[in-house]
Amino acid sequence: MPHARIFQRPKNATQSGKHRTDAWQLEFVSDAPKHADPLTGWAGGGETDEQVRLLFPTREAAIAYADREGVTYTVTPSPERTLKLQAYADNFK
Q: Cys staple from 54: which of 26, 59, 64, 76, with CB 3.0 to 4.6 Å?
């Protein structure tokens, strides 16, 4: 039975915008160990499930999909967004 992780997408660290951070993502987790390719040395495996990432508008929609398809899942709660309010003049104190 496949296992998946459901989480809310984090904000991109290199950008200031919050585009698509309200979407919930379901990604499959592989239990098989990775092995090194003898030619390139890259780590990989034979399963392609972990390449699949599905986006949902809400957490409930992602959970309903996993239940409907018989996928076991783990929901990772999204961290609280905190604002650091300060004035520009505070930089010069």
A: 26
Instruction: Out of 3.10.450, 3.60.21, 3.40.50, 3.30.160, select the CATH number for domain 3-92.
Output: 3.30.160
Q: Are 6 and 26 in contact (CB under 8 A)?
A: yes
Give 3-38 pLDDT, tens digit per residue: 999 999 887 778 777 787 889 999 999 888 888 888
What percent of the chain is predicted at pLDDT more than 70? 100
What residues does each domain of the chain span?
Answer: 3-92
Q: Is 66 helix (H, G, I), strand (E, B) or coil?
A: helix
> Using an 8 Å Cβ cutoff, are 13 and 82 in contact?
no
For tokens 């290199």, the residue is: 14
